Each structure stands twice: as C-alpha cells, then as structure tokens.
Amino acid sequence: MMPLVDREIISDQRSQVIMKPNAILAIAMFAAATPALAETTTPPAAKPGNLVVAPALGKHEAATTLDINTATVEQLAAAKGLDRLLAEAIVKGRPYKATSELVKHKILSDAQFAAVKDALVVKQN
Predict the structure, then answer these.
(1) Backbone angles phi, psi at 60, to 5 degrees
(2) What is the reported pTM?
(3) Range from 9-18, 34-43, 52-61 carrying the lowest mean pLDDT
C-alpha cells in the first residue's frame, strides 16, 4: 500500500520550484545594478606641460607665520618644533613684545627657539 502524500508537502515543493527562478532573476538584477553603485570618477589625465606641484604641508608645518600674542594653542602646537605643552606655556606667558622673550622667560630653549623662530612673530598693534 502506498502512503498518502500530504497536500501541504506537494504545495511546498511546487512553491520551491517556482521560487528558484524568481531568486535567480533577483540575483541577476542585483548583479547588473552593482556596477552602477560602484562607479567612481577618475580625474582627467594631466597634460605634461600643465603640471603644478603644491608643497605638502605636514602636521608641524605652518603655511604662514603665527603671532604668539593672538594664535590659539592648536595653531601654535601645529607649528614645526612646538607641541601642545609648549604652546600652552606660550599662551600662558602672554603678552610678548618680541619672540626672543620666549627664551628669556625660559619657555623655549635656544635650540627650540632656533627651530621655530621663522614661524613666529609678534605683531605690534
């Protein structure tokens, strides 16, 4: 005698047969759309005669001079040869009449001052 087959099992098997092509179609559509999502723009090719090379500025390289009486701690700390502690000491000792006062008041050593003197100024108001 053959066992009776449950109608739910047959129905489930049929839905699986129908769902497989739908799943394959969905995956194919996603794969086709993926390159559009991953598009990146590339810069136009530079012509040899038009190349302009800008100097790279590091963490401790300032693009301009800093007034030690008005610069923030962050600005001073970014100057080549200064760290945050020295910058805080400079701010605490304000006002200054000349950058050489940083050595006179023993905020910077002679060697430290020599390294940063070109980046620091005192503007007279």
Answers:
(1) -105, 20
(2) 0.50
(3) 52-61
Q: 106 is written with which tokens? A: 């023993």
Most confident among 16-25, 37-46, 52-61 (mean pLDDT): 16-25
Q: Are 69 and 96 in contact (CB under 8 A)?
A: yes
Q: Which of 91, 100, 89, 86 is nearest to 71 (CA)?
A: 91
- Other beta carbons within 10 angstroms of residue 120's beta carbon come to 22
Structure tokens belonging to residue 7: 């109608």
Cα 119 to Cα 81: distance, rounded to the nearest angstrom: 10
Report the SS3 class of residue 121: strand
Q: What's the half-sphere exposure (Cβ side, CA atoms, 13 Å) at 16?
A: 6
